[in-house]
Amino acid sequence: LLYLGSPSGLGREPSWRGPAAITASGGGDVNGDGYSDLVLTPGFDGGEVSVYLGSPQGLPLSPSWTLTDPSYPAVFRGEGFGLSVSIRGDANRDGFDDILVSQYRYHENLAFNPSVFCYLGKASGPSSRPDWAGRGNGISGSYGLNAAFCGDVNGDGDSEVLAADPASFPGSARLFHLGKQFPAPRIEHEPINFWNEGEPIVLDAAVTDHTDTVSRVEILHHSVYDSDFLPPIAMEGVEGDRYRGTIPGASVRAGLVYFIRATDNYGLAMRTLPIEVDLNPASAVTPRTLSFGVRVGAASGGKADRLLLSTTRPGPASVRLFDVQGRLAGTLLDTRNLENGMHVLSLSGATFLHASGVYFYRVDTADGTRSGRFVILH
């Protein structure tokens, strides 16, 4: 059962009902569409793990993908596959959360060898066979009884995996560094941090993969006012390992954030760090109307870190914030004479925004009044 959260808490009735499951894991995004997904194991001996993709409409009634027990011969399939599942980790740092499945009764060529499997997340879905397997010692039947992504314990940017073996003597656990197991494409790109308003941005990148073939290179970007990505822009090969793509001028009406992602023929991907592009001051035209929006900074991890106010006429101006109950939370700006132009209002010093939640703003200037809402996450 899935219960949706809200400002007033969880609903009384479930918004989604799935099959009976012995294990489940949610909160990860295995296909990179921005919605949290759910992975569950319908039964102890069913030999399957079901993947349900999140969407604006919620979870589907039927699984989007199904992972099956890789045991060989097939007569042994179904024994304990999916006893533990986890999707809250990105083992190869490609921006897609991966699926971890344990099987404490895995059979391989008639040999009993409990294992932990990792299926890499990707836009087209996980492979039918695991991309990585951590084997037991063939003796202890409890290896992989519980396994999970445990975060980045060594600071290399990759999620590690911890697999428990409680029945061994003495009880033990194994830590795996999966990132080194998955060589992904390498991207070399000279970031562009300033550009003229309304002019297309031509981006070049050198993409190499010494083990596989590069199948796709693309640009993903969004406005600093909105963290929702626009449709990917394909980069075409121009010479050797060099690729080129263009962000259209229509997207360069305000600052933007972009990164380049390359995918090989196995679906493994690597992307650059988010790069923030500001408009050259000399190219910025005077806004024709009052403009106000939430700015999402790349350096802040994709969270709202400032507000932008643009006016065409000088005069008195105020920016006030309210909580969901309509109470005044604080004032970001209150002046009798604000010059026309672009103004940045930082949220970092707004100590009154101490709690996560939805906030509403009201802007009053010589150009008019505007109101809206935004979300603060701590």
From TrEMBL:
Name this protein carries in UniProt: T9SS type A sorting domain-containing protein
SUPFAM superfamilies the UniProt entry points to? Integrin alpha N-terminal domain (SSF69318)
Whose protein is this, by species?
Answer: Eiseniibacteriota bacterium
What is the superkingdom listed in this entry's lineage?
A: Bacteria
InterPro entries xref list: Integrin_alpha_N, Secre_tail
